[in-house]
Amino acid sequence: MGYLKTDEEFLKRGESGGTCCVIALLRKGRLVVSNIGDCHVVLSRAGKAEVLTSDHRASQEDEKQRIENLGGFVVNYHGAWRVQGSLAVSRGNGDGHLKQWVVADRETRTLLVDH
Questions:
Q1: How far is the C-alpha of 92 from the C-alpha of 43, rounded, in Å?
Q2: Catalysed reaction per UniProt (predicted)?
């Protein structure tokens, strides 16, 4: 809900830019992580890094398909796949000119951790 509310506020204000976002909440050994865009949560387990979030980029086949199903397009521009030839991330807050395709739908993961 927080991502959608933040997105709504960006759009209400007429902000021209946008941002990616990540959240990590730890309570009683339960870790909840969520993100939009290409921000990461990385957990260290016994000295080894474990990436807990996934990027939301125009280069991903599922994201590309979602965008195309909504009438948008994804092209490779200067070595990066971009929504409408502009933005490399496919999810985020703001970016009102791309809002039809760049959504604020989060991906969430929950896991148990020892702390």
A1: 23
A2: O-phospho-L-threonyl-[protein] + H2O = L-threonyl-[protein] + phosphate; O-phospho-L-seryl-[protein] + H2O = L-seryl-[protein] + phosphate
- In sequence order, what DSSP letters do the residues of 31-99 get, joined into one string? EEEEEESS---EEEETTEEEE-S---BTTSHHHHHHHHHTT--EEEETTEEEETTTBSBSB-EE-GGGT
For the 2-112 domain, the top CATH level (class) is: alpha beta
Domain ranges of the chain: 2-112
pTM for the model stands at 0.87
pLDDT tens-digit map of 45-81: 889 999 999 999 999 999 999 999 999 999 999 999 9
Burial class (CB in 10 A: 0-12, 13-18, 19+), 108: exposed
Nearest CA among 85, 66, 89, 87 for reference residue 77: 85
Cα(33)–Cα(54) distance, integer angstroms: 11
